Amino acid sequence: MTRIIFIQPKVGYKGASFWDALGIGYIISYIKASGFSGEIEFYSGAFDSDDVIIKACSNADFVGFGFTSPQMKHALHLSRKIKGINPNCKTVFGGWHPTAVPEQTASNPEVDYVVVGEGEEGMLKIINGEVGKDERIVFSEPIGNLDELPFPDRKAIKVERHIQVAYRENGERITSIQGGRGCPFQCIFCSEYLMTKDLVRRRAPSKLVNEIEYVIDEYSVDLLKFVDPEINSSIQWVKDFCKEAIKRKVDVKFEANLHATLIDREMLELMKKANFRQIDIGVETGSPRMLKVIRKGTTIEQIKKVFKWSKEAGLLRRAYFMVGFPDETPEDVELTFKLAEELDPDVVGMTILCPFPGTTLYDSNLYKEVDWSKADEYRNDLYRTRKFSNEELKAIQDKFVKAFKNKLCYRLKS
Known about the structure:
The chain is α/β, with parallel strands linked by helices.
């Protein structure tokens, strides 16, 4: 009987948050729906010790790792240990980092296969022996119709553990949901476009609400956070989803990322009626010049409009800001501070840009040997610009944190 272990490696930096491995949950349910009759288990570095994980893999046929760049170091460590006691097992690396640098990932002797792209189809091909004898990099076709996917297997990925952590930290039972895949924007600091290019797909609102009702019944959650890069690549889709949730009296709060360009008043008002509690907007900068440099696809005027409209609709508003863009000047930074004050968001975050693999700013020669486990989604020790040293970028972030200390997002409080 074939035995598969999936692993979510841990992140190296202190205070890292771990959301449920929804992507692995989708892959597991996809494999099961194909008729697979073997055993599948899941372990997470956030909860399970290395010894427990390695022992569980001692008789596995396949070990699949799904991760981002900061988790690469731990994935390689575990794979090396697993190969030491079970040399016949096949290790499969997938997710954001392997997709960004597949050849570099495959060059590690403890890696047998690298899946590039969305993992469902590629992982199933490997398990079924449908890849060439010498084929180590497997290009996985994206799922065209998301409504054909079964719900992610939340029991398999042990989502209750994450819900309990959220409850201890926030006093609410929180988990995630996915409304679609893909992003039509190409911001230079983001790797979302790498995974799906311009293939944006959304689930039918009725089927998405079916899953939401299942999650509410099964896990008694208080808040569902959308994992989508933004849910409003189609304004009409958001309206249709809200109408479906209102019609079916869905009793849970929502939070989601929105892009400031694709918003109107009616959409925000419907979101409030559908129990959206908070919207999260990537403002990034207060400089019109920098918005163009980073290819954000919006304007300062549109951002201001959205924050005004959403406040009038009764929604809480989170604003994401960032420092460290190419050619950003002290004057640009000052404009960001001024805009943050003018928008008066309810929650704020300030990130130091990090040139992760898969982003436009990643330089394979300059950053090839970087230990990404030391990089934080909010702060890092490696990035600098022509205008600012890394220390100066940290000083700007610290000044921002001090200025908005009463509105900081959870990660900046810790």
